[in-house]
Amino acid sequence: MLQRPRGTRDFLPEEMKQRREIEGILRERVERFGYGEVVTPTFEHLELFTMKSGEGIVQELYAFEDKGGRALALRPEVTAAVLRMYVNEARMLAKPLRWYYLTNCFRYERPQKGRYREFWQFGIEQIGADSPLADAEVIVVADDLLRGAGISFELHVGHLAPMKHLLGAVDGTEQRRVMACLDKRDFAGAKACLAEQGRDSLAEDLIALAGCRSLPEIFEISGPIPEQSRIEQMFQYLDASGVPYVVNFGIARGLDYYTGMVFEGFAENLGAENQVIGGGSYRLAHLFGGEDVPSCGFAIGFDRVMVARGGVPLEKPLTVGIVSLGRGRLQAFNAARAFRDAGIRTEVELAEKGIGAQLAHASRTADFVALIGEQEVERGTVTLKNLLSGEQRECLLAEAVLEVKAFGSR
Ligand code: HAM
Q1: C-alpha torsion 326→331→337→340, nearest 10
Q2: Contact predicate 239/247, CB 8 Å
Q3: What is the pLDDT of residues 366-376, one digit of tens each?
């Protein structure tokens, strides 16, 4: 049997319905903040992703050459593409721009629970605002959306400045290696990197920084840094907004473009892959030929949100099953249309089976059955059976529609 590619998934109607419902909630909420939707291509020039991160990233990508010999890649994330689009199309628009997206991304990773090779991100990018208030807004939006999605989560908020300040004297490539270790909370790895550089004493400060949960103590460890008052202001805005958070200056973020505020969110029920959101402030536009524009954003791992929600049921819509026999079969679609026009989900029994088999099937999928047999055709009626209460009556089609509708709005 031919199977789907590793790390991809199929979605059946029941699951798609839940995904669309949560998607709808996220869209509605983000639009309330003034964000508008954007779409970028599924594939981009490979260069877009290697420019900042280097050639090493290629092994994590679905990169390929097209028939014209162009080096392309399926998008592993959306931020770079959105900033490329901003430089190409929107440099002249009034800023700040508030954009959002929901789209599939592709990473060549080792699949496991919550980690796929094709997955969906719901993200925002706020382009051209550079203030503590702008950073705080992004976190406020994140909190609003994740709450709307109905999951339990914890947001960890930090800033790269103290960590970078401590690592100031360490060479750029080594700095990245140490930050990658700290990001994974691999303190032994960070220690080993720093020891190689003869900077053992730094390790303790960095580990203390990662474990520290209070702002004044952070600045005690880092010593005076120019960003201090900006960082303090952002946290003041967050406190005033009422959004709960954990101070975490051990966050280094895996992607290479972050410059200031960084944050991540973790949810329950997810096992090892419990990070449902990641983001921060960054600069990318200048790499793509634009002016250096400060930006800030995040991406929610939509699939992880769905896993974290687990079985929290959504309201199931009322369903009518149309069962018909003999001349009644000619009426089936017309009757179904009357129910659907009234906003009621309706399925017509398609198998040309006897009444018993049709009813048995409808009882598994529907809440009401509308039966149209020879007798109903003669009298211009339907027989409506409420499968939840067992009540049954013969009435005009219009009356049946009204009855189901009234039942649904109880
Ligand atoms: P990221 O942390 O690489 O950030 O990804 C964001 C979220 O996507 C993660 O927190 C995770 O929930 C989800 N995710 C990542 N990889 C996978 C995977 N293989 N399977 C399922 N879910 C996954 C970014 O991508 C940045 N572009 C976020 C950003 C936007 N920063 C600024 N603006």
Answers
A1: -40
A2: no
A3: 999 999 999 99
pLDDT in tens, 151-179: 999 999 999 999 999 998 888 888 888 99
Closest CA to ligand 1's atom 2: 278
CA angle (385 as vertex; 382, 389 as ends), nearest 5: 160
Phi then psi dihedrals of residue 293, to 5 deg? -110, 125
Which atom of ligand 1 is found nearest the CA of 114?
Answer: 21
Q: Does pLDDT of 319 surpass 90?
A: yes
Which residue do the tokens 């709960």 mark?
244
**Beta-ladder partners of 382:** 395
Q: Whose CA is nearest to atom 4 of ligand 1?
A: 278
Q: pTM for this structure?
A: 0.83
At which residue do the structure tokens 């980690």 appear?
A: 115
Q: Is the CB of 301 under 6 A from ligand 1?
A: yes
CA distance 27 to 35: 9
Q: Which residue, by CA, sits nearest to atom 21 of ligand 1?
A: 115
Strand arrangement, sheet containing 43-45 = 43-45, 71-74, 63-65
